[in-house]
């Protein structure tokens, strides 16, 4: 033990923060704030689409075995370009791509028919 701790009248030595210590402390405090602001800027502006609250009437169509999205698009809207119909179906059903499987149910906006 030090003699300062044993002597009741003496105060403990003050902690001095040097210029380098202040810079390190500032970086340590600011880094999480900068990271949080960056993550919020990247993810904060994204909108999420859903069918809830949508006033577009739709019906469900079940994909048949061996049926492709192209065939489905030609069947649903023979007068339209199948690429446009596929893009609408992918967007409306929030699919990651145009791959479909047998038995899958797709929501089809009534304006496609």
In words, what does this structure look like?
- The protein has 113 residues and is mainly alpha-helical.
- The chain is built from 4 helices and 2 strands; from the N terminus they run H-H-E-H-H-E.
- The protein folds into 2 domains: 15-46; 58-112, Membrane-bound Lytic Murein Transglycosylase D, Chain A (Roll), CATH 3.10.350.
- Helices cover 42% and strands 9% of the residues.
- Helix 3 (69-76) packs across helix 4 (82-92).
- It is rod-shaped, with a radius of gyration of 32 Å.
- The mean pLDDT is 83.
Specify the helix fraction band: 40-55%
What is the total tally of β strands?
2
Going by CATH, the architecture of the largest domain would be: Roll
Structure class:
mainly alpha
What is the N-to-C succession of helices and strands?
A: HHEHHE
Shape, per Cα inertia axes: rod-shaped
Our Rg estimate from Cα atoms comes to 32 Å
How large a portion of the residues is in β-strands, by DSSP E?
5-15%
User: What are the segments in which pLDDT stays under 50 over at least 5 consecutive residues?
Assistant: none
Determine and state the CATH class of the largest domain.
Alpha Beta
Largest sheet: 2 strands, antiparallel
Layout of strands and helices, then pairs:
Layout: H1 3-6, H2 19-43, E1 58-62, H3 69-76, H4 82-92, E2 105-109
Antiparallel strand pairs: 1-2
């Amino acid at each position: 033990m030090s003699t300062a701790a044993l002597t009741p009248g003496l105060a403990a030595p003050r902690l001095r923060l040097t210029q380098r210590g202040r810079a390190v402390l500032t970086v340590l405090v600011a880094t999480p704030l900068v990271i949080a602001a960056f993550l919020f800027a990247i993810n904060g502006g994204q909108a999420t689409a859903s069918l809830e609250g949508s006033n577009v009437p739709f019906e469900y169509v079940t994909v048949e075995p061996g049926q492709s999205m192209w065939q489905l698009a030609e069947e649903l809207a023979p007068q339209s370009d199948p690429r446009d119909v596929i893009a609408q179906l992918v967007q409306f059903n929030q699919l990651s791509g145009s791959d479909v499987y047998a038995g899958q149910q797709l929501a089809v906006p009534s304006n496609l028919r």
